[in-house]
Amino acid sequence: MKTLLRNKEGFLARGTSVPGPAKYRPLLKECMAASKDHAPSEDAQDLLWDAILEEEHADRVVLSNPHFFGSQRDALDGQRLYPEAEDRMRALKALFPDDDLELYMAIRSPTGFLPKLLEKAGPGRRQDVLSTTNPTELRWSAMIARIRAAVPDVPITLWCYEDLPMIWAQILRELGNLEADSKVKGGMDLLGTIMTREGMRRMRAYLHDRPEITEMYKRRIFAAFLDKYAIEEALEEELDIEEWTPELIARIEEAYDADVDQLSRIPDVRLLTP
Fold first, then answer.
1. Residues whose CB is less than 8 angstroms from the CB of residue 100 and which lie 6 or more positions away in sequence, other chains included
2. Angle of helix 85-95 relative to helix 44-53, nearest 10 degrees?
3. What's the CA gap between 259 and 251, in Å, rounded?
4. Could you tell me which of 96, 150, 195, 238 has the fewest CB atoms within 10 Å of its CB?
């Protein structure tokens, strides 16, 4: 969200607004909860946009919320990822019936997703999740298929959390509806979390001396510098689940790779890759 706000002025100049989350997260939460009991009024859409945009005028608005589909506790029910996802998309569609909605989100391997999900969970919740969830059978493709069935006209763009440092600049451009080679602020910020300062300095200097390099070719350069200057500890997932053996982890990753491949086959779903 911080990087999006850094690009706020540049995005707005091209017709895309990035409101601060305090303007809309509580408001949307209340309106979506109210929509469960009664349909939104005819003027609800205009009132919401007035409250969110205030004096801004935009053709496109980026609304970001890491918990839009549910809190950490509500993110998993047995083998169902975000069981409320399709209902929340229906509610959003009802609030903005005349707008062209698009969904952008990251997916993550269960080897990183589940430990993160359970990092603040109590012993009871932790035991319940680990006893009722088989990480080799968690499928993002099943969740996306549910959303696709609920709101078939909403385009979906996905990326793997593991690829984020490599494609962060592209994601920013996608969100801002910018051209492929447009300048964005903070496009290499996430690389800085997994690469040494010396590596980042050398890479920036290398790119600065070669302004003709395309965005797609930059990813080869990112990979080359990471190969030499990566911070190994930053690349390793912290797996705080003692029950997971190396063999199980390998099977989880294999299933995740197959799931990602399945996602790329779902109609009207785009998968951004390095």
1. none
2. 100
3. 12
4. 238
Q: Answer yes or no: are the C-beta atoms of 117 and 188 closer than 8 Å.
A: no
What is the rounded CA–CA span in Å between residue 90 and residue 92? 5
Instruction: Tell me, letter by letter, the H, E, C secondary structure of the chain.
Output: CHHHHHCHHHHHHCCEECCCHHHHHHHHHHHHHHCCCCCCCCCHHHHHHHHHHCCCCCCEECCCCCCCCCCCCCCEECCEECCCHHHHHHHHHHHCCCCCCCEEEEECCHHHHHHHHHCCCCHHHHHHHHHHCCHHHCCHHHHHHHHHHHCCCCCEEEEEHHHHHHHHHHHHHHHHCCCCCCCCCCCCCCHHHCECHHHHHHHHHHHHCCCCCCHHHHHHHHHHHHHHHECHHHHCCCCCCCCCCHHHHHHHHHHHHHHHHHHCCCCCEEEECC
In this predicted structure, which of 83-87, 252-256, 263-267 has the lowest mean pLDDT? 263-267
Q: How far apart are CA 73 and CA 67, in angstroms?
A: 10
Q: Among 264, 4, 80, which residue's Cα sits nearest to residue 157?
A: 264
Retrieve residue 24's tokens. Answer: 């809309």
For residue 226, name the pLDDT band (cuts at 50, 70, 90): very high
pTM of the model: 0.89
> Does the pLDDT of residue 36 top 90, yes or no?
no
Q: CA distances (Å), 130 to each of 22, 121, 124, 243, 244, in order?
A: 34, 12, 10, 9, 10
